[in-house]
Amino acid sequence: MTDTAPRPTLEAVAARAGVSRATVSRVVNGGDGVRDILVERVRKAVEELGYVPNQAARSLVTRRHDAIAVVVAEPETRVFADPFFALQLRGISKELTAHDNQLVLLLTEGRDDHARVGRYLAGGHVDGALVFSLHLDDPLPELVQRAGVPTVFGGRPGWSGDRRGVVYVDSDNRGGARDAVRHLAGLGRSRIAHITGALDQTSAVDRLDGYRDVMADADPRLIAEADFTPAGGERATRELLGRCPDLDAVFAANDLTASGALRVLREAGRRVPDDVAVIGFDDMLPLAEQTDPPLTTVRQDIEELGRLMARLLLRGLDRGTPQEGVGDAPSSVVLPTTLVRRASA
Fold first, then answer.
1. Helix 202-214 vs helix 173-186: angle between axes, to the nearest 10 degrees?
2. DSSP 3-state assignment of 251?
3. 249-252 and 192-195: which strand pairing?
4. 87 touches 122 (CB < 8 A)
5. CB within 8 Å of 191: residues ≥ 6 apart
6. What phi-psi label fits residue 271: left (phi over 0), alpha (psi between -120 and 50 degrees) or beta?
7. How, if at all, do strands 338-340 and 296-299 pair?
8. Taking Cα atoms as reference points, which of 168, 165, 130, 128 lies closest to residue 149?
9. Phi/psi zone of residue 40: left (φ > 0), alpha (ψ -120 to 50 degrees), beta?
10. Hey, CA dihedral for 22, 25, 29, 34, is it positive or negative?
11. How far apart are CA 215 and CA 205, in angstroms?
12. Largest CA-CA distance found in the chain, in angstroms, rounded
């Protein structure tokens, strides 16, 4: 074992800066009432000595842990395979890092994981939580409420019960779906199929509703349920071709689903877009640009979704929000979507 040098103390910083210990504490913990010239001296001493605040002691003063739980209601195999989650987590991480907060990632695979996450949130380890990819029967909203942690949700709430004070960030899923289907209809396509996402999630329900807004009289056999995965897209496309071989367009609930649909259409000898036009949703790069042909899709700013979630939560915490919610934080945000035209439609 090697000897380690003792960590610089608050008193050492105060001596180097020529100020009181209380002044150093106020500067280090972000307090007010310290003249600019003294703030600069303290910061210089901190840098010279390599002082790192003791987080436990700092928490006693600020009542903050500078840590945010990010709860993804999906198993790790899904989270690490789907680029959607990487983009959203990147947006969250950038915003938290800019405000010197730590990201604590919590994933849920089953009921035992839900109980574990509930205990962790209730244990006072974090200042707040960002929760997304919820399913309709998910117990997480109730667990979060019971834990009393300020929370921002990713996606429109779909659970039953009291939603007062619930803050969420979402994209205009229904409007984006309408734009996609209208574009296909504008190309002269009349047998437009829809491959849904997992219908226990509000994003998939909203995209299906957007399809129905335009295709109110569509043959119900043109709708096939999937699960936001390439394999789901492949399976649903085979079902659609078996039921409706004369289909001439497909609107897929996301780009991964569309990529599976493109593979099956190619195997079946259907030319895209000549025989069948295809549109996805998300505009996940580089996936959307590297499909064959490159994918026309509805763009939502996934990284911005993550950034906004973190921003709303931190803003609420900075305003001294009560434990039961993000009270005086800004209301929920729904981001617009844009149709990005490429070669598939």
1. 40
2. strand
3. parallel
4. no
5. 219, 222, 244, 246, 247, 248, 249
6. beta
7. antiparallel
8. 128
9. alpha
10. positive
11. 15
12. 82
Orientation of helix 111-122 relative to helix 140-147, angle to 10°: 20
Backbone dihedral region for residue 50 (phi beyond 0: left; psi -120 to 50: alpha; all else: beta): left
The full 3-state SS of 261-304, as one line of letters, equals HHHHHHHCCCCCCCCCEEEEEECCCCHHHHCCCCCEEEECCHHH
Per-residue pLDDT tens over the stretch 39-70: 898 889 888 888 776 655 555 454 566 899 99
pLDDT digits (tens, 9 = 90+) for 230-248: 999 999 999 999 999 999 9
Is the separation of the CB atoms in 218 and 160 below 8 Å?
Answer: no
Residue carrying structure tokens 């739980």 = 69
Average of pLDDT values for 193-206? 97
As given in the structure block, the two tokens for residue 231 are: 């394999």
Grouping H, G, I as helix, E, B as strand and the rest as coil, residue 232 is helix
E-strand ranges in the chain read 67-72, 102-107, 128-132, 151-154, 168-171, 192-195, 223-224, 249-252, 277-282, 296-299, 333-335, 338-340
Query: Rounded to whole angstroms, how far apart are CA atoms 132 and 344?
Result: 30
